Records
---
Amino acid sequence: ATPLSVMVGTGKGAQAGVLIRSAEALETAHKLDTVVLDKTGTVTEGRPVLTDIRPADGFTEHELLRLVAAAEADSEHPLAGAINEGARARGLAVPSASAFDSVTGKGVQATVDGRAVLVGTARLLADVGTDTSGQTEEAAEFSAQGRTPILAAVDGRPAGVLAVADTVKDDSAQAIAALHHLGIETVILTGDNARTAAAIAGQVGVRRVLAEVLPEHKADEIRRLQGEGRTVGMVGDGINDAPALAQADVGLAIGTGTDVAIEASDITLISGSRTGVVTAIRLSRATMRNIK
Ligand code: ADP
Ligand code: MG
C-alpha cells in the first residue's frame, strides 16, 4: 500500500479505537482466513466469580473454601482472585499458607494448617495420584454450563469441587458472526478444559476449540494452524498470550489486557471492544483494494 493509503487506514482505525502499529499489520490483516481467540478475557469478560462449592465427604463448604482460598492467596491467576473474593464475601477467616507453589496452566499447591492442599485441574490431581472419580460427575455438570471446575485435594485425598463462572462478553457473539460473514474461520484457544471451552464456544457460535493447551504451547498451536496453510490472526489479553500473539501473522491485543500482550501485538483494540477485530480486517481490505 502507498504511505498515504496506510495513513488513511491507520487514521480511520484510530478513530474507531483500533490502534494499528505498523503498515505491515494493516497490509497483512486483509489476508487473514482464521482468527484464534483466547477464551479468558477475550471471549469472556475475564472477571470470574465463584458460583458453587461441593465438598467431598468429611468437609463442609466453609472448610473446603477456607483451605482452597488459603492455598490460592498468593496466586495471581484470575481464578484465585475469584476464590478469594468468594471467601471474603462469605466472611471467612482465611488462614495463611506456607510452601506455596504454582503449577502453570494447572493450579497451585501450599501447606495450610499443616495440611498439603492441592488445587486445580483434574489432571493436576491425577498427576499426583489422587483419585477424583467421585468428583467427575459434578465437574462435568459445571463444564456443561461453561463454568470452570476447580478440584481440591487435602493430604492426597479429594476434598471437593468448586466452580467459577466467567460471563461471555456482550459483543463476542456479534464480532464472531461478523468474522464468519467475512469468510473467516474462528477458533477458541484455552488452557481450560475441553468441555467448558466447548460450552463457551457454543454460546458465541465458534465451531473449533483448542482446549487444555498449556501456556507454553499456545504459540505452537498457532504455528500448527499456519502449517495448514492458514493466515492466522490471534486475539488475546494476557501475559500467557504474548508468544502466541507474536507468532500469529497479525496479533491483536485487547487494550484492557496486560502490557506484555500489547507489546507483543501488531494491533491494539483500545476500549476492549471485540468488534475491533472486524474493523481492523475491514480497514485492511479497503486499504488494499484502493491500491490495486
Ligand atoms: P487460560 O487459557 O484460560 O488463560 P490457564 O492456562 O491460565 O488458562 O489455566 C488453565 C487451567 O488451569 C485453568 O482453566 C484452571 O483449570 C487451571 N488453573 C490454572 N491456574 C489455577 C489456579 N491458580 N487455581 C486453580 N486452577 C488453576
Ligand atoms: Mg490466560
---
Amino acid sequence: MLDQKPEACQPPTANNLFLVTTHKASENLNSELRLELQTLCYHAPMTETDCLFCKILAGPAAADVVYQDNRCVAVRDINPQAPTHLLVIPREHMESLDDASQKDESLLGHLLRIGARVANLQGHDSYRSVINSGSGAGQSVFHLHVHVLAGRSMTWPPG
Ligand code: AMP
Ligand code: ZN
C-alpha cells in the first residue's frame, strides 16, 4: 500500500498526465496506483474521443474530404467564409499551435504546403492560410487546423 497518494493522484490536469508517465517509468505499479492512473486518463480535459476533428478523421463524423495523405486531411468547412474554404487537419491530435514543439515543425510545414496545393487544385493562385490559436483569436475547435480561404478578395487586417 502507498502511505500517501503520489502527486499524480491530485485532480487531473495536463501536468498530472505528464507525471503519470514519470511514475510509470520509475516505479513498479501496485494495484492502488494503477487504479489512480486509469482515473486520471479517464478525466483528461481533452481527449481524442471528445474532439470533433478526431471523429472526422476516424470516420464517425461526416465531412466533405477533398484531399488526404498519411499526415493530414483537407475538408470543406461546414460554414464557409469564402467561395473556397478548406480546413487542413493533421491526423495527430494537437489542441493548437501553442502545443506544437520542435518535433512538429515538419508536420506544420506539411499542413501549410498541402493547403497551398489543395487551393491550387481548386483553381486558386491567391488564397489566405490562417491558424486561429486560442479562443481569443477565434479558435472554436481545439484540434489544430489550417484554414485556407480563396475565391474572393480579402481585406487586411482581418477582423
Ligand atoms: P476555428 O474557429 O479556427 O477553430 O475553426 C473551426 C472551423 O471548423 C470553423 O470554421 C467551423 O465552421 C468548422 N467546422 C465545425 N464543424 C465542422 C464540420 N463538422 N465539418 C467541417 N467544418 C466544421
Ligand atoms: Zn482531435
---
Amino acid sequence: MDKYYLAVDIGASSGRHILASMAGGKMQLEEIYRFPNGMDNKDGTLCWDANRLFTEIKNGLKKCKELGKIPVSMGIDTWGVDYVLLDKDDRILGDTVGYRDDRTTGMDKKVYETISQDDLYARTGIQKQIFNTIYQLMAVKETHPEYLKQAESILMIPDYFHFLLTGVKKMEYTNATTGQLINPVTNDWDYELMDMLGYPSRIFKPVSMPGTVVGNFTKAIQEEVGFDCKVVLPATHDTGSAVLAVPTNNDNAIYISSGTWSLMGIERKEADCSMESMKANFTNEGGYDHRFRYLKNIMGLWMIQSVKKEFEKDLSFAEICERAAKETIPSIVDCNDDSFLAPKNMIQAVQDFCRKTDQQVPGTIAEIAAVIYNSLAKCYGDTVKEIESITGNTYDTIYVVGGGANAGYLNELTAKYTQKKVSAGPTEATAIGNITVQMLRDGVFASLPEARTCIGESFDIKRYNEKGKQF
Ligand code: LFR
C-alpha cells in the first residue's frame, strides 16, 4: 500500500492540496485540490477570509477520502507575518488583516520611539518590512488596544488552521521568525522586546520546531472529513518550505524562491545581524535544522499577477512570458519601490515610474511584462553582487524554485543579468519542502541532504548557461 503525506500549501493567490508518496526511490506528487486566495477589501481594510480558507482546507481533506488516499500525516504552510488574536473563547478579535494593508504606515516610527532600528536589527536579524508582525501589532496597539487586553493567544495563520484541525495551539518557529520578535541566537521569543513595546508576552506560546507533532484531528473534524490524521509541523513559512526543496547540497548556492515574491539568498548556519547586512536590507529568517535563510525580499511575480488581472484575466502566464520575450523596450523600474506594494493599478504604477524617470513608457501587456521581467532580473543581478560582497564568496549557479521557475524568459534574463548558470525547478518546491519535513520525521530520509538529493532526482529541472541558453 502506498503511504501518502499531504501538504496544504496556501499562497497569497491560491492554495493547493498535494499528496506525495515514494515510488522507486523517487518522490511523486499528485495535486488533488486547488482553490483561489487573495486579500478582500473589507470596508477599506485588506483582509484574508480565514473562514473560507478553512472550509477549503477541509474540502481538500474530503477529496483525500473520496480518492481513498488517506495520508499518514499532513501539514499546512502559508505566507509569513500575518496572525490572529484569539479571545478566551478562541474567537478571532477584529479582522484577519493582510500584510498589504496600509494600517502599518508610520508604525515603524512608533516602534523606533522605544527601540532604534539598528538595535532592533541587531536583536532580531530581520529586515525591515513595514508589514512585519512587530509593526502590525503596533497598529493594533494604537487603534484597538482593547484587542491586546482581551487576547488570550496569538497564532500565526498556519498555526491557527492547525489549531482548528487538532484543538492544539502551537507556534511554529520558521513562521514566527518572520514577525521580528524572535532572537536568532536563542531561537526563542524576545520577551524583553515584547515588554518594552507593551505587547502582552503571555499570549505567545512557546516556539515549536518543524517536525513537531501537533496532534490528531478532533472528533468533529474526523466526522466531517471522514478520517483521522496526524498533523505534523512543516516549516509553516512557505519560503522556509520552498528553500528546503532547493535541489543541491552545495553550501555555496544562491536560490530564488520565485512566486508572489522573489526571495533571493543563501543558507547560513548563523545569523548575520551586522549593520552592513542591515543596510543592504538582508534578513535572517529561521529555517529547518537551524539553517538561516539569509535573503532579500524582491517584489516578484506579484507585479505580473496584478497586471494580468487588470489587463486580461484569461491570458496564461506562459503566454504573457512569451509575448514579453519578443519586446525590446529598455525601461527598468525599481521593483522594490513602495509604489508597487499595493497599488490601486499596477499598470499605471509601472507607467508612472517610467514617466517619472524619463524612460520609455510601456503600453501593451507585452511591453509592461517585459519591463517587469527585466527589472526583476536586474534586481537579481544587484542582489548577487551584494551577497558576494557581504560573504566574500563567489557563486556559480542560481537555483530558482517555485512557480516562477516556469517563466522561461525570466530564467534567461536571470542568467544574463547575474552572469551565472541558472537551475530552474522544482516548481512545487513549497509543497515538496512541506512534505520533506513530514518524511524526515517518518524516517523516509535520514537527513536533509539525503532528501535534497532525492528531490533533485525526482523532478524536472531545467538548466541555463550564463548566456541564458538552455542546455
Ligand atoms: C512569500 C512570503 C515571504 C514573506 C511574504 C509576506 O509568500 O512568505 O517570504 O516576506 O510572503 O509574508
---
Amino acid sequence: MSTTITRKQLEEARLHRRTFAIISHPDAGKTTLTEKLLLFGGSIEVAGAVRGRKSQRSARSDWMELEKQRGISVSSTVLTFAFEDTHINLLDTPGHHDFSEDTYRTLMAADCAVMVIDAAKGIESQTEKLFRVCAARGIPVITFVNKIDRPGPSSLEILGQIEKEFSIEAVPINWPVGNGPEFSGIVDIASNQMHLFSTDSSDFRAAAVQRSWPEVLESNDSLEPTKPSPHRNSLVQSLKSEVLLRAAEELELVKHAGQEYERERFLGGQQTLVFFGSALANFGMELFLRGFIDLCPPPSASPPPKPTEASEGARDLPQFSGFVFKIQANLDPMHRDRVAFIRVRTGRFERDMDVTIARSGNRVRLPRALKVFGRERLTMEEAFPGDIIGVVCPGELRLGDSVYEDTPVRYPGVPQFPPEVFASIDCPDTSRRKQFDRGLEQLVEEGAVQLFYGTGRQRDAILAAVGELQFDVVQFRLESEYKAPSRLHRLPYAHARWYHCNDRQVAMKSPYGAKLVNDSFGSPAILIQSDWDLKQLERNNPDFTFDAIHETR
Ligand code: G4P
C-alpha cells in the first residue's frame, strides 16, 4: 500500500546512502575486506561467512558450480549493510580479467569505486585496466592499500606507482607506520592521531587505541596498546628509532610535497584518495569506513541527465526512476527466473509500483522487488536513490533500460565493451536446437557474452567476449540450464570496432581478413585480426569513426 513521503524524508534517505563498487586484481583481498566491512555493519556475525555463504550458494545454484570448480567469481553480487546512520550498498565484482565486462557494467551503477591493491605486489595489470575504465567513465576512485602487514614496496613507492601508472594524483588520507613485521599502526592525517596496531584483540569491532602522533614521536614510552611486555617494550624502542622516524619523514614529505585533497578533482577522477590497512588483521577498517562515508559522494540529487519534453511541469517531489545495469537469469535453479537489477536514480520505489519502460513505452508492474544479498533474496518494500532492487522480469526488461514512474526519463545506455576473443558456436544435437537458440538469446540479453551477425546472406552468428572463460560459462550454462550441448570454433579476430560514417557514399577500406558484422542491436561493426590491421583500418579510413566502447544498450 502506498504511503506518502516528504521531500525532506527523501532527501535524508539519499544523503545517508553510499553506493560503491569494490574492484581489484584477484587475490588483493577484496573478499576479505568485504567481509570485514559486513562484520562491522553487523550484516554477518562471523568471519568466514562470506566464503561460507559462497560455498552454500554454489551448492544451490548449478552455474555457481562453475565458480566452485574454478575458484573464481563469475558475476557481481550486491551486498548491503548499515554503519551507524549510513546505509551502504556494496557492489561486489569478479576480479578475474575474463569477467571484466560484468565489472564494467556494475561500475555504471556505482557512485564511487573502491580499488583494493595488494601492498606487497603493488599495481597489477588488471588494476590498471579497471582504473582506466573508472577514469573514462568519470567514476571517483578510493584506493585501499591492503596487506600492509606484509613486507613490500614502501608506501611512498606505492603512491608513486599509482600516480605514474594511472596519471592520477594519489592523496593519502592516512599513513602506515612501518610495513610487514614492523607495521605498528596508522596515522590519520587530518586528526594527526596514530591508531596503534595490536594483534591482541579478539573483538573485531574494538576501536584501536589512539595516541597523538606528535606525542608518540616525542615520548619514549611503549607503543604497545595493551599489556606491554618487557620484550615488546624493547622491540618497540628499537623500532622507534627507525620505523617511527621513517614514517615521520614520509609524512612530512606527503604533507609538504604531495597533492592536497580537492573535492572537485576527486569527484572528477583526477585524484584518488588512498587508505592503508590490513583486512586480514582487521586493522584500519574503521578508519577506512568512516573516511569512506565522509568522502564517497551520496547518490546524485541532480535532475535526470536527459529529461524528455514531457518532463516539463513535473511534479514537485522527484518521482521514481532507475536503470537496469544487470540481468541475471537462473540465479536460483529452483525458480529458473530472470532477475533485472535496477539502480534507483531518483525518487522512492515502492513494492507493486507501476512503471514505464522508456525503450518500449510499456507500462509494467514491478510486483516482486527483491533485495538481493549475494544470491539470497528478500522482498523489498521500498527503496531510495542509490539502492539496488532485483526485479523478476520474464522478458520485459533489458540491459540498459530506463524505467520511470510518471516523469519520462532516459538514462545513458549500459555500454558494450570491446571484446578480445571470438568464436562461432553451433548445437550438434538438432533435437535441442530450439533450446540452444533460446538459451543463447537469453545469455546475450543478460550480457554474459556479445553476439555479432555476418552481414552476408547467411547471417552467421559470432560470439564475442572479453575473455575465454566467458565462453566456458556460456557453454556450461547452455548445457546445464537449457540442456543444449554446443560446439565452439575459435575465430582469428582480435578486435571489434563499431563504426560510423556521415557520408553514405564513402566505402570503407577494410584490411585483409576483416569481417563486417552487425551487433545484436543492429549496429554495424567490423572484426579485425591484429593490432596492425586496426592501425591500418583507422589510418585508411579518415572519414569513419571507430569506437571501442559502444552505447546502444
Ligand atoms: P580476492 O577476493 O581479492 O581474490 O582476495 P581474498 O580476500 O580472497 O584474499 C586473497 C588472500 O589474501 C587470502 O589468502 C587472504 O587471507 C589474504 N589476505 C587478505 N587480506 C590480507 C591482509 O590484509 N594481510 C594478509 N597478510 N593477507 C591478506 P589465501 O591464503 O589465498 O586464502 P585463505 O586461506 O586465507 O582463505
